[in-house]
Design brief:
The complex is a heterodimer.
Chain A (H helix, E strand, L loop, with lengths): L1 H28 L2 E6 L11 H16 L3 E6 L5 H11 L5 E5 L3 H6 L7 H6 L10 H7 E2 L2 E2 L2 E7 L1 E4 L1 H7 L10 H11 L1 E2 L15 E6 L9 H6 L19 H15 L7 H11 L1 H6 L3 E6 L3 H7 L9 E3 L9 E10 L7 H14 L2 H6 L7 E2 L2 H10 L3 H11 L2 E3 L8 H17 L4 H19 L2
Parallel strand pairs in A: 1-2, 1-3, 9-10, 12-14
Antiparallel strand pairs in A: 3-12, 4-5, 6-12, 6-13, 7-10, 7-11, 8-9
Chain B lengths: L17 H7 L2 H30 L18 H7 L2 H32 L6 H13 L2 H11 L6 H8 L11 H29 L3 H9 L4 H12 L1 H16 L3 H7 L10 H11 L3 H28 L7
The chains are: A alpha/beta, B mainly alpha.
């Protein structure tokens, strides 16, 4: 009797479990939790306006889309390497914030999704919200590898006090290489206040340099473009005829001469000493170096510096020669390729990136000062509300002459091309023969490209 | 007379399960059971990755899906023959090895000899010398970057205070590698000292006593007794030192990043860049196997030299 009752109770419990399980399965059918990297801040930035804006976005998004929960994950160190490993291991997040320099590697690894599909799934998502310069970085043929979030053109930061010290006018947005060279010579001062054009200039007691020249390609590739040259063919198959073209060599010579011929930029060792003694930004703010090339993100470092004051920082577009040009660095939102197998998660992820690139969220993160929003409306509004409107406006103006970083087009760019060119320029700035260094580098890179493109 | 054959009866004792059979067998079989966890570990985390890496070296794997890796045969090895940067890095590794192994051994032997004396505080100093060994490379690097700072570093302060010019230790291509060697020797000193100490303490005291009776001074005893009897220890430290030096990576990665002007770009750093920044896993694997082959050959040469000199009979 007991066993019969036990058996009935067992059946009943079993039935209930089946019903509960079925209910749970159906109830979870529409509920999605997306793993997202790019919505957290480092521990020391918790509670900052940027952190608050991201937290608010997560909350608001969940309220607007109750079936989608965002699991915000902190970005691991060495992210660009880690994400490839995570993709191979099947542990990559669903959505992540990605510097566009790694896009070709992710595409080659078949790790990210062509988000054109989102344009059909989420009608609110339209491409006219994006600045075309930023959007084009993600477009390859008919494919759209993620959506742009924001970025920056490389511009020239200058310390207005150094111009006052030299008794010269601040540069204009349409200045030329000739203006640039003269300005650098006038800005470079010795301890007696004489500039480089003065025959009595004291080489041994330089207290103010005009400009910082470094070997890193990302800080000078646009000088090559401005001179009508380039470093690689449009299809990325060769550097011969580009890196060793007369225009490119002329631009490299111009940069080398700023250090070794005109002496308006510190030598690598002098720069190294400045860096180690004060930190470069402090050296800049205290007037040791009048100008340097960098992107929008440097505003954060400058504003956090102890001796920062508003009147010590301004920016100007890069000088033009044959043409005006600068390079753009950008980041955006990408989707894991594995989402293609899960329509529900895919739609949720598309909805999320629509929200992340919408004017509302884009406007709220302007306070970070890291970049110009890729959302045109948010970028325009940012200039209005910026704490440094003139600088913000100049950044947006400089964007017009921007070209995408080549790392966004060619897989393996950093190791195959950029690193050898950086070493080439390091040797040239240390006094190496330009033609010899260029020839060795062309041969080395072409060998690599031949192998990569076979 | 009909003969009757009695079939052997199966007793409970003879009906052993496989498990019982195994345990009641020889110790040799049981031994395999004991090594099974380690063997599994070695197969899973050593032999399989090694085999996989060897396989990868014949492919052009750059993606996340191994099934898409194109088989390229010996192309990676052929390409490597003309890879100027890789051989430059290999040359830097050899330079690092040539500097760090003999210097490190000599300095640590000197320290070990002092630490082997029956002096007050010896144990404290042994601990002190060993501390860098257990410190992280990042922490050690930060300390040394500060010490070697051309402006505010204590080393340049000491140099200039005795009238010598200051040196841009990590920024000058000619001093960057020696600086890395100094740091690596300092960090590894404690380990080598412990090995030397073990060797020194194994030298029979009677030999020193006999030498003293014969009128030998300290240097003669050290040269004629200590050094020859430390041959096994020297050999061990030399072999492991060469292997470790060719694999140097952490100080280069953290302190110089391979610069200035490629002066500290060593082989493992180059392999790392290829694999994890260029995602060129196939070629990086080929480079790793060439590095392994070079280390292997060098180790064989060391064993051969030892055999030729008849030193193998010493230990």
């Amino acid at each position: 009797m007991l066993s019969k009752r036990t058996s009935q109770a067992g059946r009943l419990i079993g039935l209930m479990l089946i019903v509960i399980s079925a209910f749970t399965v159906f109830a979870q059918d529409d509920a999605v939790t997306l793993d997202v990297i790019g919505l957290t801040v480092p521990p020391d930035e918790i509670g900052t306006p940027l952190d608050i804006s991201r937290q608010e976005f997560i909350t608001d998004f969940h309220e607007a889309n109750p079936t989608i929960t965002i699991n915000a994950i902190e970005a691991p160190p060495e992210f660009d390497t880690q994400i490839i490993i995570d993709l191979a291991a099947g542990t990559a997040p669903d959505v992540w914030y990605q510097g566009s320099g790694n896009l070709p590697n992710l595409v080659a690894a078949e790790g990210i999704l062509d988000v054109s599909v989102c344009l059909d799934l989420v009608p609110e998502l339209t491409l006219d919200r994006f600045d075309p310069n930023f959007l084009s970085i993600h477009q390859q043929g008919d494919a759209l590898w993620g959506l742009p979030d924001g970025g920056t053109p490389m511009v020239m930061y200058y310390n207005p006090e150094t111009f006052a010290n030299a008794g010269i006018d601040e540069p204009s947005m349409d200045w030329t290489w000739d203006d640039f060279l003269t300005t650098m010579q006038e800005l470079t001062l010795d301890s007696a206040g004489r500039n480089r054009l003065d025959p009595e200039f004291d080489e041994e007691n330089i207290v103010q340099y005009g400009f910082r020249v470094r070997n890193f390609l990302f800080e000078w590739i646009y000088f090559v473009w401005q001179n009508g040259g380039d470093v690689i063919s449009p299809d990325g198959t060769t550097v011969d005829g580009y890196l060793n073209s007369p225009e490119t060599i002329e631009a490299i010579t111009f940069l080398r001469d700023l250090v070794l011929e005109y002496g308006v930029a510190p030598s690598p060792s002098a720069l190294d000493q400045l860096n180690q003694q004060f930190g470069f930004l402090t050296a800049f703010l205290q007037g040791d170096v009048a100008m340097f090339a960098r992107g929008h993100w440097e505003m954060v470092g400058l504003r956090n510096n102890e001796i920062y004051t508003e009147d010590r920082v301004n920016i100007v577009a890069n000088p033009r020669n044959v043409e005006a040009a600068t390079v753009i660095y950008e980041s955006g939102w990408v989707l894991n390729a594995a989402l293609a197998d899960d329509p529900v998660r895919l739609e949720a992820a598309c909805t999320l990136i629509e929200g992340l690139t919408d004017v509302q969220f884009q406007s709220s993160k302007v306070i970070s000062g890291l970049e110009i929003s890729a959302n045109v409306e948010a970028a325009a509004a940012a200039v209005e509300v910026s704490e440094y409107p003139e600088i913000s406006e100049r950044f947006v103006m400089a964007l017009a002459d921007g070209r995408a970083d080549y790392a966004t087009r060619f897989a393996g760019w950093a190791v195959l091309v950029e690193e050898p060119i950086n070493l080439m320029m390091e040797n040239i700035l240390a006094g190496g023969d330009i033609q010899e260094e260029v020839d060795i580098t062309v041969e080395e890179i072409n060998r690599e490209l031949e192998r990569a493109n076979r | 007379m009909a003969s009757t054959t009695q079939l052997p009866t199966r007793t409970a004792k003879s009906r052993k399960s496989l498990w019982q059979k195994f345990w009641s067998s020889t110790n040799e079989r049981m031994g395999y059971l004991f090594i099974l966890p380690s063997l599994t570990h070695i197969i899973l985390f050593l032999f399989i990755p090694l085999g996989f890496s060897l396989f990868l070296s014949f492919t052009d794997w750059r993606g996340t899906n191994i099934y898409n890796a194109p088989w390229v045969g010996l192309d990676n090895y052929e390409f490597m023959m003309g890879d100027r940067r890789f051989w430059n890095a290999m040359q830097n590794s050899a330079y690092y090895t040539l500097l760090s192994v003999p210097l490190g051994m000599a300095i640590s032997l000197g320290v070990a000899v002092v630490m082997n004396q029956k002096l007050r505080g010896t144990y404290f100093f042994r601990t002190l010398f060993f501390m860098p060994v257990i410190s992280s490379w990042v922490a050690v690097s930060v300390i040394w970057i500060t010490i070697l700072d051309p402006q505010a570093g204590i080393l340049n302060y000491l140099l200039t205070s005795i009238g010598l010019p200051s040196v841009n230790w990590l920024g000058d291509p000619s001093t960057a590698m020696p600086s890395i060697v100094i740091i690596a020797i300092w960090k590894g000193l404690g380990f080598q000292m412990i090995i030397w100490l073990a060797g020194l303490q194994a030298v029979p005291e009677v030999l020193y006593e006999a030498a003293s009776i014969d009128g030998a001074n300290s240097w003669q005893k050290f040269r004629s007794i200590t050094i020859p009897l430390l041959a096994p220890t020297s050999f061990f430290l030399f072999v492991t030192g060469v292997i470790g030096s060719f694999q140097v990576f952490s100080p280069v990665y953290v302190i110089t990043g391979g610069g200035p002007r490629g002066a500290t770009d060593v082989a493992v750093h180059r392999i790392y860049l290829r694999a994890f920044e260029g995602f060129d896993m196939g070629y990086a694997s080929a480079q790793a196997w060439v590095l392994f082959s070079i280390i292997f050959v060098l180790t064989l040469v060391q064993f051969w030299v030892r055999r030729r000199r008849g030193e193998e009979t010493l230990f």
